[in-house]
Write a structure and sequence with these properties.
This protein is α/β, with parallel strands linked by helices. It has one domain: Class I glutamine amidotransferase (GATase) domain (Rossmann fold). Helix content is 33%, strand content 28%. The chain has helices at 14-26, 77-82, 86-97, 109-114, 130-135, 164-179; strands at 2-7, 10-13, 30-35, 40-45, 48-54, 57-58, 69-72, 102-105, 122-123, 139-140, 145-148, 155-158. α1 (14-26) crosses α6. The longest helix has 16 residues, at 164-179. The model has no long low-confidence stretch (mean pLDDT 96).
């Protein structure tokens, strides 16, 4: 299965990109780095610059139909940038409209909120997003990982890098089941 990993050109939390990416590779999937700009994305280890990663597809040219699922890594700057990009928001919303599974960790639900896909869903995130999720009509819970199947697709969310093992296991299980 091709899995889109959507990031901004700068600000993605490196471990929230690399661990789910490697988990997808290990499970036999094809991860694809999608960004708003061609070239490379600059990852961060909290506030320090990390590695750069080559962009495979540009969001304005990518189609949700060509992917089995979407992973939204966090980092504070990453989803903040993405939620201000109309093409990125439309790309995310298309996964929900098409009933494809989505996984988001840490601050990534900010992009989900902007895409107006949180209403009626139960999800988790970095704790400071609790009020944002509630104001968008979602139900925020403080759990390591949460799988919500409200609507035609499933949404997997986690709070932080410490939750990555549970996040990776859950999103891969859900994506595999949805891909059948």
């Amino acid at each position: 299965m091709r899995i889109a990993f959507l990031t901004a050109p700068e600000g993605v939390e490196q471990v929230e990109l690399t661990e789910p990416w490697q988990a997808a590779v290990d499970a036999g999937h094809e991860p694809v780095l999608v960004s708003t700009d061609p070239g490379k994305v600059q990852a961060f280890n909290h506030l320090d610059k990390g590695d750069t990663f080559a962009v495979d597809e540009v969001v304005g040219e990518a189609s949700a139909e060509s992917f089995g699922g979407l992973v939204l890594p966090g980092g504070v700057a990453n989803p903040d940038f993405l939620r201000g990009d109309d093409k990125a928001v439309a790309f995310v919303k298309a996964f929900f409209e098409q009933g494809r599974p989505v996984a988001a960790i840490c601050h990534a639900p900010w992009t989900l909120i902007e895409a107006d896909v949180v209403r009626g869903r139960v999800l988790t995130s970095w704790p400071s997003l609790r009020t944002d999720v509630r104001n968008a009509g979602g139900d925020w819970v403080d759990e390591q990982v949460r799988v919500c199947d409200h609507g035609p697709n499933k949404l997997v969310t986690s709070r932080k890098p410490d939750d990555l093992p549970a996040f990776c296991e859950a999103y891969l299980r859900v994506f595999a089941a949805e891909g059948d």
